Every structure is written in structure tokens, then in C-alpha cells.
């Protein structure tokens, strides 16, 4: 039987995985700079996946001082303007108190705090990215 080779991912399609929290890591800001540059160079961002402390980026309750950028707001605007899905890992989100309306009802919580257009989903979304022929770039917290 002939050996099968996996077709390499196209150079211009990326999935971004952000694991560093805003304001305690450069990961979200560096990823946003990369994403803007990629689109300016006619590349495509397939999706942005938030994992671990990176899910804090999807909180509607973050309120940085007025002289600092609001990375959560900046990311939400970028994703909306460019019609890019922003996915927060459900396990990471729930563990860190990031709740959408569905989980709010499920756990009978008083409120939700997920910023649109982010959505909460399982690791299946990340697995889809690995199978989708996009290049996966990780933006870690950088210990």
C-alpha cells in the first residue's frame, strides 16, 4: 500500500490559540497585532480559540484604567469587523467564572458575562481547526 502524506496547511490560513490572560501577559496583544498584520497581508484567520487564562479576554466585565487599552473590547471589535469566530474553551471558561446565557441557566447563576461575539464551546472546535488545514499559532502567557 502506498504511503499517504498529509497535505500541508495553506500558508495563508491561521487558527490562533491564546492562553495568556490580558494585562498579566503580552499574549492577547501580540496575537491581535499578528491577526491585523495577517489580514493586511491578505491572509485569513479561521478562528481564535481562547484556552486557560486566555478566556479572560472574553469577559464583558473587564474594565481596565482609562489610559490602558481595553483588549477585550479591541478583540471583540476585531472579530466582529472581520467575521472571525472567537471561541472560549468551556472547561477553562467555567473554571474561571466566564459564563454565557446557556451556562447561566444550566447552573442557575444570577448573570452571564460573556462578551459578544465570543462563544463558549468545547475542545471540538480546536480539534476542527487541527483538521481544517489551517496553521495553528499559539500565543502563550510566557513564563
From TrEMBL:
The protein's Enzyme Commission number: 2.8.1.-
Places the protein is found: Cytoplasm
GO molecular function, one term: transferase activity
Primary localisation category: cytoplasm
Keyword Cytoplasm: yes
Gene3D superfamilies: DsrEFH-like (3.40.1260.10)
Domain of life: Bacteria
Keyword Transferase attached: yes
Class of enzymatic activity (EC top level): transferase
Pfam families noted in UniProt: DsrE
Keywords from the named record: Cytoplasm, Transferase
Protein family (similarity comment): Belongs to the DsrE/TusD family.
Name under which the protein is recorded: Sulfurtransferase complex subunit TusD
Amino acid at each position: 500500500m502506498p504511503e499517504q502524506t498529509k497535505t500541508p496547511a495553506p500558508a495563508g490560513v491561521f487558527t490562533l490559540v491564546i492562553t495568556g490572560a490580558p494585562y498579566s501577559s503580552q499574549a492577547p496583544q501580540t496575537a491581535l497585532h499578528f491577526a491585523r498584520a495577517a489580514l493586511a497581508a491578505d491572509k485569513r484567520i479561521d478562528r481564535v480559540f481562547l484556552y486557560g487564562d486566555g478566556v479572560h479576554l472574553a469577559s464583558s466585565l473587564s474594565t481596565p484604567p482609562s489610559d490602558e487599552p481595553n483588549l477585550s473590547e479591541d478583540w471583540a471589535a476585531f472579530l466582529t469587523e472581520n467575521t472571525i469566530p472567537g471561541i472560549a474553551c468551556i472547561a477553562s471558561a467555567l473554571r474561571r467564572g466566564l459564563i454565557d446565557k446557556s451556562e447561566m441557566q444550566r447552573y442557575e447563576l444570577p448573570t452571564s458575562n460573556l462578551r459578544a461575539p465570543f462563544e463558549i464551546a468545547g475542545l471540538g472546535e480546536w480539534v476542527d481547526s487541527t483538521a481544517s488545514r489551517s496553521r495553528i499559532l499559539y500565543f502563550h502567557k510566557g513564563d
